[in-house]
Design brief:
The chain has about 425 residues and is of the alpha+beta class. The chain contains 8 helices and 25 strands.
Amino acid sequence: GAPSFAEREKASQALEAIGEAALPALQEAAEKSNDLEVKRRAADLVRVIEARLAAEKLHRVAEELHPPTRISLVYQNAVVADVLKDLSARTGVPFQLQVPAERKGGVLQKLVTVRLERQPLWQAIDHVLAVCGLRQAEPASLPENMDELPQVFSIEEGALPAGRVCYNGVARVRRLTGLGVKKPAAHALADEPIPLEICLEPRRFVECQVPKSVEIRLLDNQRRPFKTTSYLQPDKFPEPPRPGVLLNPNHPPIVPRDPGWRVLMTLRVEKAALDKAACLDGRIELRVHAQEELVIDNLAQAPRQLYGECNRLQVELIKVSTTDRRTTVVLAERTQALPSHIAQVLAKPEWLRNNVPWLAAGQVRLFDAQGDPCPFVGSQDMGRQEGNTTVYQKSATFTMPGTAKPARLVITGHRRLALLLVAFRFSLTSS
């Protein structure tokens, strides 16, 4: 309420920085103040702070539901060629170098030193590439058929433009530029195309559904939101839409088809509103399928214990028995209902599907000491409920050829994850 505009702006910025602790006083001022300027500023700050808190809460929930893979690595005076090869092996992301032939030797033989401790996968990749003097390349155009979208991470020389990438758990969102996006005739004057790329961690696939825009907001220079119309352009998706997996209506398990961990889409926003905005704030829903693989070596002597990681494929080895040249392996998996604090935030039935066991749609394979597969005979599945925990048990039997001994068990699990909420925020005022 100071007479000086500069002082009022400074006060607003200070209160916004305080955040949640300032909300009670701001809410009271917005309701009861007799000063219209104070009333307006307080109401604006309440909206900004509450929106930020809600976004932070959703982000924490999304990371808890879909924790990013964390990797540690050390490269000491390593050549870029070896770094890229090792980084691809560690992360599962296939790199494709786009460098002129006369430059390729110099780029790949450059020496770099990098040390990272438990960094999220996508941040680690971008950091290592930056040290190597590389960045992700932009696609020349959006393919008419998303089945033709290369599932590779193309890289080129240069630095990644600031403010073009957002990280969100297992997802990386990039705002693309320079693409010739066709405008639908009916909306040619009203809407502006914003091409986006979403990369999920490998072994995470977008299901056979068009991504759905949950909420798109535009913010002005004071970070106040104002209304606008927006939608995801559907004509860039084939019929059926982008097939990350093939759904069999007669069987709940999901069978992976194409590894669609990378998708492109066009967000169309009302042009008149976009021209006045300083920031684009959005959330997109993706239905995601995941595939995990777990290996138990030296099976006969392997301890009867839990294998795998929490929030990933994690199974307990219960029993291994061999009789009459047949080996039977008994595995168990325990899944729990979502914690109440997550269920309350999500409040959507489709978010609550991540308590389906990985093994329910999984595959168990057994190999002998020579690495040859043992013929599969059959399996039995059984489930029971223990409070809010579901115990799922699978018994798999294999034939042992000749004098072969069981050596290596490979478990591949599939699961439809809880709905993935991908959040992003891009500045519209920078170049």
